[in-house]
């Protein structure tokens, strides 16, 4: 009449599967991909506006081209890679997710290093994006 509860290892296996191959992984990768898509499209459409909160003035054609390349083109490429990785659990997809997570962690670390050399910055945009990058890197590593 009554069945025994599954053993703890079975529950752990199911939790790992849900994180690394299930809905949670897909949601995290899709959310990160949407963030990079938004950033990329915004950079392509309005490069000067994208970097203005950081105190960067982009008044030249080469400057706008640089923002469009680094934030726009690169951002859209990362988004495409994350969207593709959301459809697979293979080693290549996991490698893509690891690379994006490490890149985000490196960006966050760069903000901390900058704090060592520069005066304290206001919470926005510097520390806001530090937390976005840190939490996104942690989420990607967790589901990978």
Automatic annotation (TrEMBL):
<dbReference type="InterPro" id="IPR025597">
    <property type="entry name" value="DUF4345"/>
</dbReference>
<keyword id="KW-0812">Transmembrane</keyword>
<feature type="transmembrane region" description="Helical">
    <location>
        <begin position="69"/>
        <end position="86"/>
    </location>
</feature>
<feature type="transmembrane region" description="Helical">
    <location>
        <begin position="122"/>
        <end position="143"/>
    </location>
</feature>
<feature type="transmembrane region" description="Helical">
    <location>
        <begin position="27"/>
        <end position="48"/>
    </location>
</feature>
<dbReference type="Pfam" id="PF14248">
    <property type="entry name" value="DUF4345"/>
</dbReference>
<protein>
    <submittedName>
        <fullName>DUF4345 domain-containing protein</fullName>
    </submittedName>
</protein>
<feature type="transmembrane region" description="Helical">
    <location>
        <begin position="92"/>
        <end position="110"/>
    </location>
</feature>
<keyword id="KW-0472">Membrane</keyword>
<keyword id="KW-1133">Transmembrane helix</keyword>
